[in-house]
UniProtKB/TrEMBL annotation:
Residues 58-114 are annotated as: Disordered. Keywords: Metal-binding, Nucleus, Transcription, Transcription regulation, Zinc. InterPro entries: XnlR_reg_dom (IPR007219). This is Xylanolytic transcriptional activator regulatory domain-containing protein. It comes from the Eukaryota. It comes from Elasticomyces elasticus. Signal peptide: none annotated. One of its GO terms (molecular function) is zinc ion binding.
Length: 675
C-alpha cells in the first residue's frame, strides 16, 4: 500500500517542500503501483479514518480581515492567476510557515474492532423478519421483477452478515451517517437490508446479488404504507430510502437508475423528515448515563439530513439535473468532527467534546470561508465535503441570476430599446464582472480547503484522503460549462440527439469557453488531469468516483479539442485580461521561459501551475500514456485512457453509462474551430 515515492507526490497547491520547475522528481509511471495496488476498500478502514488533530489553516491571513494581503494573492483580485503559493510562504512569518509542520501526526483509526472480522452478526429475529417481508413482497406487483422471481432470491443469513460487514468497513467511511457503537444494538430490518445491498458491492460475490437486494428494498419501500413494513418507524424508512437511492442511482441496473433519476421528491422528503426530527429532540442533559446516547441521536439526524442534501447536490453535478434542495435548506449544524463521531465510549466522547466548539450551519460555514478565508481546524471531512458542494450551490444561484439578461439592467424612467439595454441572450457569464468575482471567490475558497488538505497529505506521507477528489472535481464544476460539454459529447457520440440549433449553441459556448476564457479553462484542465492521478493511486471505490472521472475526461476532451484548434492556428492572448509583464514579478517571466511542458495528471509545483494558467498556449500539456493534449489525437486518447480507468472501478459496476459516451466519442471525428 505504501510506496516511498509517495513522499514526492504531495499536491502542488502546498509548497512546504520547494522544488524547481523540472520533472526530475516525478517518477516514471512504472515506479508507482498500478491501479490494482491503489488503496481499496480493504485498506480504507486503516487509512481513511479521521486525524485525531486536524492541521492548522495554511493560508494568509489566518484570521480576521484586518491583515493586509498583496494584490494578486487570490483569484478574486481579478488577475488571470494568483501568486504561487510558495512565493506567498516566503513572505510569511516563520511561525506561520511552521504551523502546519508542527501539527501532530494523524492517528488513523479503524472503524471499529467489531468489524475486524469478515462478518457482522445479525440477530436471528432480524433475519426472520427480513425473510418474511421479502416473501410477502412476492405477492405484490413488482415494478422491476427481474430478480424477484422466487423464494430462492432470499439471501442467507451468512450472506447478509458478510455484506453488512462490508458496509461498515467500506461504505460508511464514504458517507458516515451511521453510528456503529450505538446502532449495532438497534437493528431495523429494512435499514439492515439497505445496508447489506450497499455492502454487497464491496464483496467478491456476483454483482447480481447487490442489484437483487436493491430490488427487494425498492419493492418493500414502495409498499411502506401497508403491512409489509408495519413494524418500521418513519425514521427507519427514510434511512433505508437514502441508502437505497444511492445504490439505485449509481448502480449497474438501468431500470433502477432511471427510476431514481425520475424521483424528484425522495431526497427532499428525507431531508425534511430528519430536519424536523432534529427540531423536536430534547437538548443534552447532565445525566451522564443518557447524555451520549441523546447526542448520537441528534448527530445522526444531522448526518442523515445532510446525507440527503449532499446526494441531491451530487446528483445535480453528476447528471446535470436541477437540484431539489438549496442553501436555504442548509440551516442545520454541520456534522461534527470524525474523532468525536467515532468515540468508542461515553467517557471518550465527553473528553473530546470538551475540546471542540459547536459547529455552525452550512450557510454560516460558507460565509466564513468566503469572507474570512479560513476553516477551523476541528472541522471534519464530512463537513468539508458539504462545504465544497455548498459552493456549487452558490455558483449555481449566481449563474441562474445573471443568466437572466434583466439582472444586469438598471431600471430607468426613460424608454429604451431592448436590444440596446440588455446583454445578449444567452448571456456569456464570464463577461459579467459580478459573476467573475463570485467565480474567483469560489476558487479562493476551494484553495483554502485544499491547502489544509495538503497538510493532511503531508502528515500521511503522500497518501491522499477522499476529500481531495472532491477538491479537484470542484474546479471542474465551478469553472466549466459542464452541462453544455456533456450535451455536445452525447450528441457526437450518438447517445442523445438534440436539435441542431441547440447543438450549435452548446458547441459555440464550449468553444468560447476554451478560447475566450482560457485561464479558467486551463485551471479546470489541470484539476481534471490530477483527478486521474487520484483515481489511479488513491481510489476507495466510492460511488462518486466514476462520474467525477468521466466528466473530467469530457472536460479535457473539450479543452483539448477547441483550445488545440486555436493554438495550432495562432497563439491566443486576451489583452484586457492578461497583465502586462512589467507589472509582474521578474521571476514570473523567467519561469515562463524556463519550462515549456506540464504534466496534467501529476501533482506538480504551484509556480508551474500558475505559469500554465497564464501562458498555457505556449506550452505542451502532457498526460501519461496520451502525450500532448493539444496534439491531433490527444482529445480522443484521453477518452480511451479514461475508459480504461473507468473499467477498473468495478465495485459499483456503473461505468457502462459513461463508457457508452466515451467510447463512441473517442472514435468520432474531431471538430475544428469553425465546425
Amino acid at each position: 500500500m505504501w510506496d516511498p515515492n509517495m513522499l514526492q507526490t504531495t499536491n502542488w497547491l502546498d509548497a512546504l517542500w520547494n522544488e524547481n520547475d523540472n520533472f526530475s522528481y516525478i517518477a516514471d509511471d512504472n515506479a508507482f503501483p498500478g491501479p490494482g495496488a491503489s488503496v481499496g476498500p480493504q485498506d480504507a478502514a486503516s487509512v481513511f479514518g479521521s486525524p485525531a488533530h486536524a492541521p492548522s489553516v495554511g493560508i494568509t491571513p489566518a484570521s480576521g480581515s484586518s491583515e493586509e494581503t498583496a494584490t494578486g494573492e487570490y483569484y478574486v483580485d481579478g488577475l488571470p492567476g494568483r501568486l504561487p503559493r510558495s512565493r506567498k510562504r516566503k513572505r510569511d512569518s516563520a511561525a506561520h510557515s511552521d504551523s502546519v509542520t508542527q501539527a501532530r501526526s494523524p492517528e488513523w483509526q479503524t472503524t471499529s474492532s467489531a468489524v475486524a472480522h469478515g462478518r457482522m452478526p445479525i440477530l436471528n429475529k432480524t433475519h426472520e423478519v427480513i425473510s418474511q417481508m421479502i416473501k410477502a413482497s412476492f405477492a405484490q406487483p413488482a415494478t422491476s421483477p427481474s430478480y424477484l422471481a422466487s423464494d430462492s432470491s432470499i439471501p442467507a443469513k451468512e450472506t447478509l452478515e458478510r455484506s453488512l460487514h462490508a458496509y461498515w468497513k467500506s461504505f460508511n467511511l464514504i458517507l458516515p451517517v451511521s453510528h456503529l457503537e450505538t446502532e449495532r444494538t438497534l437493528e431495523s430490518p429494512i435499514v439492515t437490508l439497505a445496508r447489506c445491498s450497499l455492502g454487497e458491492k464491496y464483496t467478491p460475490a456476483s454483482s447480481e446479488t447487490s442489484e437483487s437486494l436493491h430490488e427487494h428494498v425498492s419493492q418493500l419501500l414502495s409498499h411502506s404504507g401497508d403491512s409489509l413494513v408495519s413494524g418500521e418507524g418513519a425514521s427507519a424508512l427514510c434511512h433505508a430510502r437514502l441508502l437505497n437511492h444511492i445504490g439505485c442511482l449509481y448502480g449497474r441496473d438501468s431500470k433502477l437508475r432511471n427510476t431514481a433519476m425520475k424521483d424528484h421528491h425522495t431526497l427532499r422528503q428525507i431531508y425534511d423528515h430528519f430536519a424536523a426530527n432534529f427540531k423536536t429532540l430534547q437538548p443534552l442533559t447532565s445525566n451522564e448515563g443518557t447524555r451520549w446516547e441523546t447526542w448520537v441521536t441528534q448527530e445522526t439526524c444531522i448526518r442523515l439530513a445532510y446525507g440527503a442534501w449532499l446526494l441531491d447536490a451530487m446528483k445535480a453535478s453528476h447528471y446535470c439535473v436541477r437540484p431539489q434542495l438549496s442553501l436555504e435548506d442548509a440551516w442545520l449544524p454541520l456534522p461534527c468532527s470524525e474523532r468525536l463521531w467515532e468515540a468508542k465510549s461515553s467517557g471518550e466522547w465527553q473528553d473530546i467534546l470538551a475540546l471542540e466548539q459547536s459547529p455552525p450551519s452550512l450557510n454560516i460555514a460558507i460565509q466564513e470561508l468566503l469572507i474570512e478565508k479560513r476553516v477551523p481546524r476541528e472541522r471534519g471531512e464530512f463537513a468539508r465535503v458539504l462545504i465544497i458542494h455548498g459552493l456549487y450551490h452558490r455558483i449555481w444561484e449566481v449563474s441562474k441570476y445573471f443568466s437572466n439578461p434583466l439582472s444586469a439592467w438598471a431600471p430607468v424612467a426613460q424608454r429604451q430599446q431592448r436590444s440596446d439595454a440588455l446583454l445578449e441572450d444567452p448571456v456569456w457569464l464570464p463577461a459579467v464582472p459580478e459573476f467573475a468575482k463570485w467565480q474567483n471567490a469560489s476558487c479562493d475558497a476551494i484553495d483554502v480547503l485544499h491547502w489544509q488538505a495538503n497538510a493532511t497529505i503531508g502528515q500521511a506521507r503522500g497518501l491522499e484522503h477522499p476529500t481531495v477528489l472532491h477538491l479537484h472535481f470542484a474546479r471542474v464544476v465551478l469553472l466549466t460549462p459542464l452541462e453544455q460539454i456533456v450535451r455536445v459529447a452525447k450528441h457526437k457520440a450518438g447517445v442523445q440527439s438534440v436539435e441542431l440549433s441547440t447543438y450549435e449553441l452548446d458547441k459555440s459556448l464550449v468553444q468560447r469557453w476554451a478560447v475566450q476564457h482560457p485561464y479558467k479553462a486551463r485551471l479546470a484542465a489541470i484539476h481534471a488531469g490530477v483527478l486521474f492521478w487520484h483515481v489511479r493511486r488513491h481510489s476507495i471505490d466510492a460511488f462518486y468516483e466514476a462520474p467525477a472521472l468521466a466528466l473530467s475526461a469530457l472536460v479535457l476532451w473539450a479543452f483539448g479539442t477547441y483550445a488545440a484548434s486555436v493554438n495550432s492556428a495562432q497563439p491566443v492572448r486576451i489583452p484586457d485580461q492578461l497583465p502586462d509583464a512589467t507589472h509582474r514579478p521578474p521571476s514570473d517571466v523567467e519561469d515562463e521561459k524556463s519550462c515549456s511542458i506540464i504534466l496534467l495528471d501529476r501533482p506538480t509545483d504551484d509556480e508551474l501551475v500558475q505559469q500554465f494558467i497564464r501562458a498555457g498556449h505556449k506550452m505542451q500539456a502532457h498526460i501519461s500514456g496520451i502525450g500532448d493534449l493539444y496534439s491531433a489525437k490527444g482529445p480522443s486518447r484521453v477518452l480511451s485512457h479514461a475508459s480504461r480507468l473507468l473499467a477498473s472501478l468495478d465495485s459499483w459496476n456503473s461505468a457502462k453509462i459513461w463508457l457508452d459516451i466515451l467510447g463512441p466519442l473517442s472514435e468520432a471525428p474531431l471538430p475544428t474551430v469553425n465546425q
